[in-house]
């Protein structure tokens, strides 16, 4: 059943260390990755052969990680993240000395026929702007070919674009950038026509998009071209280093103004302009808005390193929920269920605000990783999900879309408008995964629907609870174990005891301690009413975590 040559070839590509399929695939220093990527090419082909489909996807990216890292992840035919069952298979296939046994199991249990299968699916391949990405993608393509399948390489694309291509190709639609941008532009045009309260574009609003020196800068150009949105200035478009002192992850974690390597592009903005600042991450799946203030005599680049006010991903959920509720109220709800999915990193003030919105909004908390949020969101007619780090989207079920189409065809003018606007949101929001490019237009559209010209109205909806976030470099992050959507630490005992004691003595504070699935760090997060007290409590947590996990050798 198995061709010996195929097994022999795969066996030659053996990683020098153990890897596990983490929060978003395999990630490490790019030098360590060639065998991992090759075997992921095999895995992608096997996954495609195991289900009737047109294609699956394979993306080479390490997203928010430094430029010397890279990574690989597989995309399911419906555009979602690899299923949990296949994540386990992936880890086995990558790590085993001899992959024969696992391949034989796949042939039997998953019906992966390596030969003679009449339908031959394709593996769609894409990669980000890192130096190591294109060479790694060639290894994946080589592996797909070895399995007797074809690949289609899209070259440099954002991660969400590849998710989108895979999804629509399996729905019988042509997958290309033109179609991707046209859908977004269609939604934007509909909202411009029916929903924007200030229909005339305010020439005084300037949108500055920090592209993290990543693959998102090209996609932003496409977006501007198709939507014709005015006054968008893209900075950090590739002159500087990827994700270094800029980009969504940097801004959200450090809460300071980025380095802008091409700041001359924005220095001529009028001093009385209303500025919307936002940052993409390295592969453009996360978007973070922030507010920076400067005096008239300052230049924008003089703000580098100064504190900003960050509007985290939770704020996008809140904005989306407000607008969706506004339209649904016109339709008297239509019995559509609406869920907002968060993780334990969501600021408690956002959760309280969302819960206060009442019917039909329901709020859920799941573990970190967009795959968990996406799965939970799909259980609702309209599923809004965002991680605090800016990763998210709004998913509309097929039945919700049919319901809206029926209204458009059959009812009065004002209900028709509300249904058209909701459908427009489903056209802008990437229906496969969180997407910073489409979310930029989405956020700008939602702000316009609310009639808000600057970001402070959005910010003043509620006040975030003071919070502290830290990434601790340790020797062994894996000894930290959690349950209850990562909200409770169960091991090691020393850490779990300290958290339990603090939570009992300080019930208005809460803490989150978990090993990262993308970096070699333990992430610690805390929030509560007083920053001073929080600083003190977080120090105790940092000490016990470092003691338990060990500080890294110099
Ligand atoms: C990835 C995942 C996100 C997750 C983030 C951080 O983002 O897609 O869902 O929140 O990693 O995960 P962790 O805390 O486990 O390191 P990206 O943008 O890096 O692909």
Automatic annotation (TrEMBL):
Please give the pathway this protein is involved in. Nucleotide-sugar biosynthesis; UDP-N-acetyl-alpha-D-glucosamine biosynthesis; N-acetyl-alpha-D-glucosamine 1-phosphate from alpha-D-glucosamine 6-phosphate (route I): step 2/2
Q: Give the cofactors, semicolon-separated.
A: Mg(2+)
Q: For this protein, what is the EC number? A: 5.4.2.3
What is this enzyme's catalytic activity, as reactions? Answer: N-acetyl-alpha-D-glucosamine 1-phosphate = N-acetyl-D-glucosamine 6-phosphate
Q: Which residues form the Phosphoacetylglucosamine mutase AMG1 domain?
A: 312-452
Name a biological process GO annotation. UDP-N-acetylglucosamine biosynthetic process
UniProt signal peptide: none
Kindly indicate whether the keyword Isomerase belongs to this entry: yes
Among Gene3D superfamilies, the record links this protein to: Alpha-D-Glucose-1,6-Bisphosphate, subunit A, domain 3, Alpha-D-phosphohexomutase, C-terminal domain
Q: Which Pfam families match?
A: AMG1_III, PGM_PMM_I, PGM_PMM_IV
- A molecular-function term among this protein's GO annotations: phosphoacetylglucosamine mutase activity
- The Alpha-D-phosphohexomutase alpha/beta/alpha domain sits at 56-89, 114-168
Which superkingdom is the protein from? Eukaryota
- Does the record bear Plastid in its keywords? no
Q: What range(s) does the Alpha-D-phosphohexomutase C-terminal domain occupy?
A: 510-542
Q: Which InterPro entries would you find in this protein's record?
A: A-D-PHexomutase_a/b/a-I, A-D-PHexomutase_a/b/a-I/II/III, A-D-PHexomutase_C, A-D-PHexomutase_C_sf, A-D-PHexomutase_CS, AMG1_III
State the top-level EC class.
Answer: isomerase
Keyword line: Isomerase, Magnesium, Metal-binding
Task: Read off the PANTHER family from this record.
Answer: PHOSPHOACETYLGLUCOSAMINE MUTASE
Which family is it part of?
Belongs to the phosphohexose mutase family.
Q: What is this protein called?
A: phosphoacetylglucosamine mutase
The species this protein belongs to is: Galdieria sulphuraria (Red alga)
């Amino acid at each position: 059943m198995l061709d010996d040559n195929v097994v022999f070839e795969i066996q030659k590509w053996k990683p020098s260390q153990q890897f596990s399929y983490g929060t978003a695939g395999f990630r490490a220093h790019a030098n360590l990755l060639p065998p991992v990527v090759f075997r992921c090419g095999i895995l992608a082909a096997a996954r495609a052969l195991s289900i009737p489909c047109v294609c699956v996807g394979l993306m080479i990216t390490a997203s928010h990680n430094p430029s010397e890292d890279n990574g690989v992840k597989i995309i399911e035919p419906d555009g979602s993240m690899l299923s949990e069952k296949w994540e386990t298979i992936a880890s086995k296939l990558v790590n085993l000395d001899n992959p024969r046994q696992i391949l034989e199991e796949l042939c039997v249990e998953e019906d992966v026929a390596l030969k003679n299968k009449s339908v031959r699916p394709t593996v769609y391949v894409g990669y980000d702007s890192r130096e190591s990405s294109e060479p790694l993608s060639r290894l994946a393509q080589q592996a797909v070919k070895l399995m007797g399948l074809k690949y289609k390489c899209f070259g440099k694309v954002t991660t969400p674009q590849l998710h989108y291509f895979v999804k629509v190709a399996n729905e019988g639609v042509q997958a290309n950038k033109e179609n991707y941008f046209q859908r977004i532009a269609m939604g934007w045009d509909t909202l411009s026509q029916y929903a924007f309260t200030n229909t005339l574009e305010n020439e005084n609003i300037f949108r500055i998009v920090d592209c993290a020196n990543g693959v998102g800068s090209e996609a932003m150009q496409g977006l501007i071209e198709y939507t014709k949105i005015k006054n968008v200035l893209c900075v950090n478009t590739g002159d500087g280093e990827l994700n270094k002192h800029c980009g969504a992850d940097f801004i959200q974690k450090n809460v300071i103004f980025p380095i802008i390597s091409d700041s001359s592009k924005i220095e001529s903005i009028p001093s009385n302009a209303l500025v919307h600042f936002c940052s993409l991450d390295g592969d453009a799946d996360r978007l973070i808005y922030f507010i920076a203030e400067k005096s008239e005599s300052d230049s924008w680049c003089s703000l580098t390193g100064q504190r900003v006010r960050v509007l985290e991903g939770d704020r996008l959920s809140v904005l989306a929920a407000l607008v969706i509720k506004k339209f649904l109220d016109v339709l008297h709800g239509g019995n559509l269920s609406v869920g907002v999915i968060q993780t334990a990193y969501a600021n408690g003030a956002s959760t309280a605000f969302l819960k206060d919105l009442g019917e039909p909004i329901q709020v859920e908390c799941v573990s970190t990783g967009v795959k968990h949020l996406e799965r939970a969101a799909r259980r609702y007619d309209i599923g809004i999900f965002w991680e605090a780090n800016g990763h998210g989207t709004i998913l509309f079920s097929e039945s919700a879309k049919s319901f809206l189409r029926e209204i458009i065809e059959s009812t009065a003018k004002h209900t028709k408008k509300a249904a058209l606007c909701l459908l427009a949101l489903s056209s802008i929001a990437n229906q496969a995964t969180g997407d910073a490019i489409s979310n930029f237009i989405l956020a700008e559209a939602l702000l316009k629907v609310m009639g808000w010209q600057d970001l402070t109205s959005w910010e003043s909806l509620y006040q975030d609870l003071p919070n502290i976030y830290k990434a601790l470099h340790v020797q062994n992050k894996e000894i930290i174990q959690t349950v209850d959507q990562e909200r409770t630490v169960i091991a090691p005992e020393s850490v779990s005891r300290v958290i339990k004691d603090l939570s009992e003595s300080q019930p208005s504070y809460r803490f989150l301690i978990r090993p990262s699935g993308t970096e070699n760090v333990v992430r610690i997060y805390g929030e509560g009413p007083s920053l001073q007290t929080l600083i003190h409590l977080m120090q105790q947590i940092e000490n016990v975590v470092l003691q338990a996990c060990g500080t890294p050798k110099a």
